[in-house]
Design a protein that fits this description.
Layout: H1 2-18, H2 23-33, E1 37-40, E2 43-48, E3 51-58, E4 63-72, H3 78-90, E5 96-100, E6 103-110, H4 117-132
Antiparallel strand pairs: 1-2, 2-3, 3-4, 4-6, 5-6
Length: 164
């Protein structure tokens, strides 16, 4: 009986490792969820309902990211950036709002090989909804953790200083 259990565990472990995500699999998934994918292995761009996505991978270092530009930060009200940070804790879930080179992005960042096809599809969905919900619910799914308090209007803050 122990041998049978060990055999089953070994087969399951082999099956999991055999299912690791690759650039080829990632490319196929993107082709399934969008009309047209441009780019090459490791660097792609595609649209879903006019929302731009960029997918970057580094298979050598086992990293990948699915990102979508939202807006230039200079065009945003201060409370929008604060609300995005609050959403990172409560409603953005597996994606995060991030700023790079003056752009706010919806971003999913994860090890590449460990991803399943279902996780990639879910990540694309969450990146899409975090992008399109920016400025309103700031949510990537319908699940929101308690305590989500977004600021409707910018409020003035007095800076507190203390000795460190």
């Amino acid at each position: 009986m122990k041998r049978l259990a060990l055999l089953i565990i070994s087969l399951l472990a082999f099956n999991v490792s055999a299912q690791e995500m690759t650039n080829d699999k990632l490319g196929k998934i993107m082709n399934e969820v969008s009309d047209k994918v441009e780019g090459e292995n490791g660097r792609w761009q595609f649209n879903i309902k006019e929302t731009v996505f960029i997918v970057l991978t580094d298979s050598t270092n086992n990293r990948m990211r699915i990102i979508s530009p939202i807006a230039e930060t200079i065009s945003l009200e201060k409370n929008m950036l604060e609300n995005a940070l609050i959403a990172n804790f409560h409603s953005a879930l597996d994606v995060k709002y991030a700023i790079s080179e003056g752009i706010i992005w919806s971003a999913f960042i994860h090890p590449l090989r460990e991803l399943s096809e279902k996780q990639v599809e879910d990540a694309i969905s969450q990146v899409y909804y975090a992008n399109t919900n920016f400025g309103t619910t700031y949510a990537s799914t319908s699940l929101i953790f308690p305590g989500n308090k977004r600021e409707e209007k910018p409020k003035e803050k007095k800076l507190k200083t203390r000795k460190i």
